[in-house]
Amino acid sequence: MWKTILRRVLIMIPELIILSVLVFILSKQLPGDPFTGSINPKSSPGQLHHLMQINGLYDPWYQQYWNWVIHLFHGDLGNSYEYQEPVSAIIASRAINTFWLSLVTMIMTYVIGIPLGLYAGRHEGKLQDTLVRIYSYVTMSVPFFVVLVLGCWIFGYDLSWFPTTGSVSPQASGFFGVFISRVYHMILPATLGALFATSGITQYLRSGVIDARNSNYVKTAQAKGVSMDDIYQHHILRNALLPIAAFAGYSITGLLGGSLFTEQIFSYPGMGLLFLNAVNFRDYTVMTALVLLYGLLSLLGTLLSDIALSVIDPRIRVE
Question: What is the distance between the alpha carbons of residues 235 and 168, in angstroms, rounded to a whole number?
Fold first, then answer.
């Protein structure tokens, strides 16, 4: 397996190079520039021309790309045109917020989705199964941004139970106070995200439980007098978790990817909101670095999912 993992990692290198070239070219094709209207609305064309020239934005794209690669190998992702700070420092500060929000969302998703899927599969065709399926169909049919907007309006503005902007209250002080404030700000967006994400896990796990329960090895275990609790625990659950394991890698790498909808609606200072602002303000350095990071996370997610599948089911081997 280790040789296969090493080979997969080496294959990622040309894929990331191709991705970086594509995103670099496409970002330069966007209309506008990072300076018009962002420094002074009354800036003269000569001042804007000077800024474009000293930042090398008039150079051919391949020259700009080569300069970016040289700086990248020196650990320099460049400076943000919008924030006037190093890109690495901006991404690091936003990644912390996104990591904790996504971690809480992922934990809540599996805590809610796995029991619901097992419960529905075990009571196939009964009232319990029908109620779980109705819940899954509703969450799958309603667009995610609608759920976020309604939740923000009802629980944030109407009932005023939770904050609707930021990640930490400005009045929070001390380690304990900041920690409580951070958790308080994450409860509503994480809960809404988890409720929306559980539909897929619930349906996959329900189908896996039903298929495993009707398999020959389960019937053989029943004929031998094995209790249903032991059958579910040692036979059905392990096989039913295979579809869930296939998405586990993407869930883990999504901890740094962030959610564009969630962070935009709740004004949560994370990676998703940073990417949207970078596109709006033509912040090429931040945009390129984030897309490259997202590509790396996607490739790692594929590898982690394959590894998780091989761990749960030894018959599956990473090829």
Answer: 45
CB 207 within 8 A of CB 121: yes
Distance CA 305, CA 319 (A): 13
Helix (H/G/I), strand (E/B), else coil: 223: helix
Residue tagged 């941004």 (tokens): 145
* Residue count of the chain: 319
> Among 35-44, 76-85, 155-164, 172-181, where is mean pLDDT lowest?
35-44
Say if residues 283 and 291 touch (Cβ distance below 8 Å).
no
Enumerate the domain spans of the chain: 87-246
pLDDT-derived band of residue 38, with 50, 70 and 90 as boundaries?
low
DSSP 265-300: HTT--SHHHHHHHHHHTT-HHHHHHHHHHHHHHHHH
Amino acid at 51: L
Mean pLDDT of 64-80: 81
Both structure tokens of 218:
């389960």
| Angstrom distance (rounded) from CA 169 to CA 163 | 9
How many angstroms separate the CA atoms of 101 and 105, rounded? 6
Give how far the C-alpha of residue 160 lies from the chain's centroid of Cα atoms, to the nearest Å.
27
Q: What is the pLDDT of residues 249-289, one digit of tens each?
A: 666 666 565 577 888 888 888 888 888 888 887 888 888 88
CA distance 1 to 242: 19
| Distant-in-sequence contacts of 45-48, Cβ < 8 A, 24+ apart | none
User: Of the candidates 260, 20, 239, which has an alpha carbon nearest to the alpha carbon of residue 121?
Assistant: 239
For residues 267 and 65, the answer to whether their CB atoms sit within 8 Å is: no
* 41 Rama class: left (phi>0) / alpha (psi -120 to 50) / beta: alpha
